[in-house]
Structures are given as C-alpha cells and as structure tokens.
Amino acid sequence: MNLDFSNDEKEFRKSIRQWMKENVPDDIRRCTARGAMPDKNMQQRWERLLGSQGWLTSTWPEQFGGPGWSATQRYIFDQERASAGAPPTSPFGVAMVGPVLYTFGSEAQKERWLPGIQRGETLWCQGYSEPNAGSDLASLKTRATRNGDHYLVNGQKIWTTQAHWADMMFCLVRTDSTVKQQQGISFLLIDMKTPGLEVRPIYSIDGHHHLNEVYFTDVKVPVENLVGQEGMGWTIAKFLLTHERTTIAGVADIHYEINRLKSAIDALPTETDKQLAVRRLAGLEVDLMALEYTNFRTVAATDEGKPFGPESSGLKIKGTELQQRVSQAMVEIGGLMSLPWDNEEPIGEQIFNQASRRYNFLRACTIYGGSNEIQKNVLAKMLLGL
Amino acid sequence: MDFKLPENTTMIADTARRYLKDNYSFDSYIAQLNESNHLEANRWQAMNDLGWFGLPFAESVGGYGGSLLDVCAIVQELGAALCLDPFVDLIVSPGKLLEFANTPTSLALLDRIIAGEARVACGLYDRHAGYHVLNPSLRLNGERLSGQKHVVSDGGVADAVLVSAMSGDELVIVALPFDACDVERYRLLDGSRAASLTLDDVLITDEMVLCRGDAAKQAVSAWFDYLCALDCARMYGACREVYQATLEYARTRKQFGRTIGSFQVIQHYLVDAFIDLQQLESMLLMVSVKGESANVCERGRATAAAKAYYANRAVGITQQGIQIHGGVGVTEELNIGHYFRLVTHASLSHGDREHHMSRFIQAGEKQNEVV
C-alpha cells in the first residue's frame, strides 16, 4: 500500500505544470474559467499544440506514436491540464478511431490516418446513433451497398457531435441485412466532403450548436475505407466500450469546477448563504474523493498490466452523475445570478453567468456514450451475472 | 501508487475470516445478543492466541507492531460475521488511547490489556458534549470528579474505565474503577453492550490521572480518528455480506414465474450497490492508511471524509438490501436487518455524518491556511 506519487511522478507533475503555465493560450484559459465551451478554433489550436509535443495521443502505445507514459503519468497530465484551465481533448480521433485503426486497420489505413490524428490536424466525428437506433444501437439502418470499388451509403445519423467541424466520420453501417443484426454491421471511414452527405445542425438546450443530423444520399465511399472485414463493425464498437480510458470519470475537470465554485462563495449575499454553499460543496468533495480513489485504483491496476475491465463503467456512471450535481450546485448557489442568458456583463459573480448553460449542456453526459441505464444493463449482465 | 495489501495484512485477514467462519455463526450472534456478558471465554482466549491483543500496538510498548490497515482487516471480518466479541471495545479502543497517551502509568495499564488481564473500557462521550470529545462535561475539581458519561461500550464486563474530563481549561484522561460510579447497563443498536456512568464527587488520586493538557488532547484526537477508521472497516465488512446475500437472493427468489434478478429495476439497484461497494472499498483503503498519518490535518480530513461517505452510502446499501429482500428483510430471523442495525450504529458512533462534514470543512480551511 502506498498512496503517494513517486518522486519521479512528482517531478513529471512539476514539468507538466510549468509547461501548462507557459503554453495554455490566455483566451482558452479565460474561456474555461468563464465556464464556456471552446469554439472550433480554440479546440483545434489547443489540440495541435499538444500534438506538436507528441502529447495529444498520450494513451497510444509507443509503436504508434504515443509518448510512452504510464497510466499514472497520463492521470497526472490530465490533472495538470484541467487545473491550468485547458479543455479536455475531443475523444473521437484520439480515443476512438485511433485505437480502432491501430488495432483493426490495415497498414495503409494506419499510415494514411494516424499521423493526422496525432498532430491534431484531422477532426473526426462519430456516426453511430440514428433516429430509431439510440440505446438500441444494433438496430441501425444506414445501408452501405457494395458497388465495384466503392460502397454507396444511404440513410441518416443523428446526435453527431462536431459533425459540422469534422473532416472525417467513422461510421457504423449495415452491409448485410440477411444475418443477425449485430453481424451485418461494418465500420466505414467517410470523408465529410463527399457529395450526397449533408450536415444539419441541432441546437441543444444550452443554446449552442454541438450536435447534428447527417444525411447520406448515394454517398460514395471507397472500399479501402472499410476497417477490418465486412460484418466486424459490432466487434469494433464493443472493443471501444472497454478500451482503456483511465480519465473517463472526469475527476480532474470536476476538481476544477468545484474550485471555481469555491472561489465565488465570498460573493454570496449573506452568511447563511455562504454556510449552506460551503456545506453543499463539502458533500460534493467527499463524493469526489471516493470517485478519485476508485480512479486511482484503476490507474494503479493499469500500470500493473491488468486489463481495463467492465467495472470501469462505474467510473463513467459516477463521474457523469457528479458532473451534473456540481453544475446544478453552481446554478442553485448562484440563484438570481444564474438567470441571465445572453448578457455580456455578468449581473453578479462572473462564474454564475454561464453556469445555467453548462448545467443545461451537462444533462447530456449521462446519455451520451451509452446512457447510464444501458451501462447498468451491461454491468448487470457481465459482472453480476443477472 | 500501490493499492495491493501487504502480504502480512492479507494473511491476517484470511486468518480472521477462517477463524470466524469456523467459530462464529449467525446462531452464535443471536445467542450472544441475548446475553448481557459478551465476553465468551473460549473465543476470547482464541483471539488472544491469534495474537490480536498485541497486534494494534507498537513493539516499543509491548505490542506486535500491526498497522491500522491490519486492524481494519480484522474489524472488517468481525463486521462481516456480525461478531459481538468486544475486541474493539476492550482491547483496541482503550489500548490505543493508552498508547497515544504514552505515559508510564498508561503504558503499564496497556501492558495488562495486551496480556489479556484487564477489562478496561473507554468513556469519552457524554450527553452535553455529544461528539465533541475535546470538550467533555465531566469536571475534575481538585481531587473530585463529577458528571456523567454515556455509551461506554464495554461488552458488559468492564471493571475499569478511562474517562475524559476538564480540569479547569485543561483536558485530562483519568482511569477509575467502575465501582466508583453509578452504573446503568444497556444494549445498543448493534446489539453490543454499554453503560452510562454517573460520577458524584469521586475521589481521584494523582496516579489515576494518566495524561493532561495538550498531550491528552492529542491522544484523544488520534484515538477518535483511529476509531473512525475502524467504524468504516466494520461497515465495509457488513456491506460486503449484504451485497453478496442480496445478489444471491435476486438470483434465486422467483416471482411472476421468473427470478427477481431478471427485472431491470432490481438489476439497476444491484449495480448501484456494486459501484457503491467499490467506492466504499476505495475509501476504506484510503482511511486505513491516512487514519494514522503523522500529519494531523490530513488524518482528520481523511477520517472525516470517509465516515461522512460511509454514513451515506454504506447505510444506503443495507437499506436497499432490506428493500430487495422484501418482507423477510425486516424480520429478526434474517441477518440482513441485523447488518442494517450494525451499519446504522457504526455510522452514528464516533461522529455522525453532519459532525464529520463539519470536520471536513474545518480541515479544508486549515489545509488552505498551511498552503
């Protein structure tokens, strides 16, 4: 038993902290401190900056261009990243299609796509959900029909985050409707500029445009953009569910949010308001501690070479619940100060000004990436044998 | 970081589990529940033979130098077995207070506890001070001690007690015989035995005062944190059993022609319990290390967080265990309700949730001052 970081790890933290201090751009830092979301330009500048250090793809094995960090180092990096006010990186390229490509892709596919992800140059989006295939993903209907050296894709995807930013989409399509649902699904890479592909915005309740509908009408996708074989799509999708993501709980960003909220308590109108806010924050901090030590255990186990098991779904469930509770606390503690929606100048403490937007935005986090109810179904089956 | 238990701790835990499996059952528990004397001679001797009496204490004071982690391993198994043998009340609790007090008289008494020769309890709580153990209402005026102590957990058999009192504005720890007090004995929520003591001008000689002033404060505060960690260990053991039993029940109990574990709502309750249990284990590992940290602020913050968390989630697991068992869950004949009482008890002894939330907030403020 040892609950301390090693001296090497402490040195690593120091060097990352120093780098963050010198390199996180001021406009991005201010944006995060306001509780706002970075725009495309900020997100991409930040990811390219990390890419230039070789840190964007920190979870990748060294042979594919990862920096060779341990899970503990990656965890420390994430803590320092969040506390410096830098945004998390977009998961679609780095955490999703990248690992799919170096695990299932051909040599040509690796050469073609991995460098762009590593350098933060290619932006990806995820074409999974459809209007009638949400939690029941395997019932998806978007068709890809083989036609000589290409597929013709027809159908519709929905809830496609950042499709309006993306250069490429990785997409689950049906290539065979004569076999069992799961076996007829394939994994295709689709250029977002292909004719016949149309992106339409969906505005979410935070008032912003993150989500989209994507329509496919006879979209030509070259056969070399199929990953693995036809029919392997479901296997690949499942691989991603248990792919190691030791920062999935969002502990570092929850810390940052709690600290932001703490810094505003002095601005509350009365002593009673302050005391109640302090008490509420302490409750959240205690729950965060339990989540964080559970996360530490996963990190330590990963560094011992143990597989990242389904029990890590617990990190996602508890992490997203806590993100929502913290954002709700911020709105409720802000009270009247949380009500203005589109004003430039805050009517009170700055942090409450965007709090309700963030609160609205985070209602999605227990839904995306497999709703928490679906995660629980999976756990009940895989871990509890029910 | 490394969360693997040291080999020695694993051995201690295995031995405790095996010993209790062979020597203590739900029937033994029910039998003990109906006794007012909880010191069962054979098992008491067996625990002594296992080395448990010396384990919690440093080698320099005659113990075997076990860590808090080791003691938590035993207490976890005692909780899992619903065992009422007063190992904590008569060995660990008074022994640690005497060890922390670290005076010649306190260590002499500790010697007798380790040897299994003394039956001493701790009386650090009273009606007026509640959980605020550094401000007891008992008063030592000159040589006379007056006031009241309650929830003196003693297995029903202690003949001496360590009490805290204020002597002017100084905290003192005093050892005195039970028969110097008016004693009222009763059973507690978890089935264990305790007493209330009324002291009316009891004559206190110098050698009965073990420790005073800052030294007494430090000893009581270290004792409180240590006992908080043990509460968590005990609750964890109980929750582990409740979770396993409830999962097993959901797999086998049939209604509407199918097992109730096939219903999604029950599956989700059980997944919630699984995740909570994982987090409770994380908090237990954390507090088993930090609960005896030399950094007093870190120690206090860790024990406060752990107990506050347990008072919420450990209690929640046992409540849900009853709910999933349905009617049979609220009966005396099933163990589930007894675990619920044990966990509720442990969540209220040595500070309840609100008390520990306040401590956590204060520790955070102090931490900021240091930074």
From TrEMBL, chain A:
<dbReference type="InterPro" id="IPR036250">
    <property type="entry name" value="AcylCo_DH-like_C"/>
</dbReference>
<feature type="domain" description="Acyl-CoA dehydrogenase/oxidase C-terminal">
    <location>
        <begin position="231"/>
        <end position="383"/>
    </location>
</feature>
<dbReference type="Pfam" id="PF02771">
    <property type="entry name" value="Acyl-CoA_dh_N"/>
</dbReference>
<dbReference type="GO" id="GO:0016627">
    <property type="term" value="F:oxidoreductase activity, acting on the CH-CH group of donors"/>
</dbReference>
<feature type="domain" description="Acyl-CoA oxidase/dehydrogenase middle">
    <location>
        <begin position="125"/>
        <end position="219"/>
    </location>
</feature>
<keyword id="KW-0274">FAD</keyword>
<dbReference type="Pfam" id="PF02770">
    <property type="entry name" value="Acyl-CoA_dh_M"/>
</dbReference>
<dbReference type="Pfam" id="PF00441">
    <property type="entry name" value="Acyl-CoA_dh_1"/>
</dbReference>
<keyword id="KW-0560">Oxidoreductase</keyword>
<dbReference type="GO" id="GO:0050660">
    <property type="term" value="F:flavin adenine dinucleotide binding"/>
</dbReference>
<dbReference type="InterPro" id="IPR037069">
    <property type="entry name" value="AcylCoA_DH/ox_N_sf"/>
</dbReference>
<keyword id="KW-0285">Flavoprotein</keyword>
<dbReference type="GO" id="GO:0005886">
    <property type="term" value="C:plasma membrane"/>
</dbReference>
<dbReference type="InterPro" id="IPR006091">
    <property type="entry name" value="Acyl-CoA_Oxase/DH_mid-dom"/>
</dbReference>
<dbReference type="InterPro" id="IPR009100">
    <property type="entry name" value="AcylCoA_DH/oxidase_NM_dom_sf"/>
</dbReference>
<protein>
    <submittedName>
        <fullName>Acyl-CoA dehydrogenase</fullName>
    </submittedName>
</protein>
<comment type="similarity">
    <text>Belongs to the acyl-CoA dehydrogenase family.</text>
</comment>
<dbReference type="InterPro" id="IPR013786">
    <property type="entry name" value="AcylCoA_DH/ox_N"/>
</dbReference>
<feature type="domain" description="Acyl-CoA dehydrogenase/oxidase N-terminal">
    <location>
        <begin position="7"/>
        <end position="121"/>
    </location>
</feature>
<dbReference type="InterPro" id="IPR052161">
    <property type="entry name" value="Mycobact_Acyl-CoA_DH"/>
</dbReference>
<dbReference type="InterPro" id="IPR046373">
    <property type="entry name" value="Acyl-CoA_Oxase/DH_mid-dom_sf"/>
</dbReference>
<dbReference type="InterPro" id="IPR009075">
    <property type="entry name" value="AcylCo_DH/oxidase_C"/>
</dbReference>
UniProtKB/TrEMBL annotation, chain B:
<dbReference type="GO" id="GO:0003995">
    <property type="term" value="F:acyl-CoA dehydrogenase activity"/>
</dbReference>
<dbReference type="InterPro" id="IPR009100">
    <property type="entry name" value="AcylCoA_DH/oxidase_NM_dom_sf"/>
</dbReference>
<feature type="domain" description="Acyl-CoA dehydrogenase/oxidase N-terminal">
    <location>
        <begin position="7"/>
        <end position="83"/>
    </location>
</feature>
<keyword id="KW-0285">Flavoprotein</keyword>
<dbReference type="Pfam" id="PF02771">
    <property type="entry name" value="Acyl-CoA_dh_N"/>
</dbReference>
<protein>
    <submittedName>
        <fullName>Acyl-CoA dehydrogenase</fullName>
    </submittedName>
</protein>
<dbReference type="InterPro" id="IPR037069">
    <property type="entry name" value="AcylCoA_DH/ox_N_sf"/>
</dbReference>
<keyword id="KW-0560">Oxidoreductase</keyword>
<dbReference type="InterPro" id="IPR046373">
    <property type="entry name" value="Acyl-CoA_Oxase/DH_mid-dom_sf"/>
</dbReference>
<dbReference type="InterPro" id="IPR013786">
    <property type="entry name" value="AcylCoA_DH/ox_N"/>
</dbReference>
<dbReference type="InterPro" id="IPR009075">
    <property type="entry name" value="AcylCo_DH/oxidase_C"/>
</dbReference>
<keyword id="KW-0274">FAD</keyword>
<dbReference type="InterPro" id="IPR036250">
    <property type="entry name" value="AcylCo_DH-like_C"/>
</dbReference>
<feature type="domain" description="Acyl-CoA dehydrogenase/oxidase C-terminal">
    <location>
        <begin position="232"/>
        <end position="358"/>
    </location>
</feature>
<comment type="similarity">
    <text>Belongs to the acyl-CoA dehydrogenase family.</text>
</comment>
<dbReference type="Pfam" id="PF00441">
    <property type="entry name" value="Acyl-CoA_dh_1"/>
</dbReference>
<dbReference type="GO" id="GO:0050660">
    <property type="term" value="F:flavin adenine dinucleotide binding"/>
</dbReference>
